[in-house]
Amino acid sequence: MSRIYGEKSAVTINVTPKDTTNTAYTPTTARYRVDDCRTQTELVDWTTLTPSTSMEIAIPGTANEIIGNRNTPEWKIVTVNTDNGLSTDNYAEYKYGVRDLKFAQAD
């Protein structure tokens, strides 16, 4: 995934865990975190998800503020971890961009 959103926009990512045969399954545990690619700044610490064959991650607009003033998108990485600490432990990454809107109002 590599869509670009306007700064301060809420972003929703749908995750479907798959096993080694590429079949959707319900993991025992699931969690995610969000980081800025360039600065490696943690934007959302590890957050627990309810394990399911399809999980929705709602990233708040506050995590999508522009960190630097640049004319190119700032890329964010959502890391999803399922079955943490088990033999089926798995990590996946989803990438999206945030574009500086220049005139987005500060709170």
The H-and-E topology, N to C, reads as EEEEEEE
**Overall strand count:** 7
Q: Tell me the name of the CATH class.
A: Mainly Beta
Task: Report the end-to-end length measured between terminal Cα atoms.
Answer: 29 Å
Q: Into which percentage range does the β-strand content fall?
A: 35-45%
* Percent in helix: under 10%
Radius of gyration: 15 Å
What would the average pLDDT be, to the nearest integer? Answer: 90
What's the number of domains? Answer: 1
**CATH architecture designation:** Sandwich
Structural class: mainly beta
Shape: elongated
Mind summarizing the main beta sheet? 5 strands, mixed
Number of helices: 0
Low-confidence stretches: none
CATH topology: Immunoglobulin-like
Question: What does this protein structure show overall?
Answer:
The protein is mostly beta strands. It has one domain (4-99): Immunoglobulin-like, CATH 2.60.40. The protein contains no helices and seven strands. The chain has strands at 4-6, 11-15, 30-36, 42-48, 55-59, 74-82, 90-99. The strands form two sheets. A five-stranded mixed sheet has the order 1-7-6-3-4, with no helix packed on it. Strands 2-5 form a two-stranded antiparallel sheet. A hairpin with a 5-residue loop joins β3 and β4 (42-48). The model has no long low-confidence stretch (mean pLDDT 90).
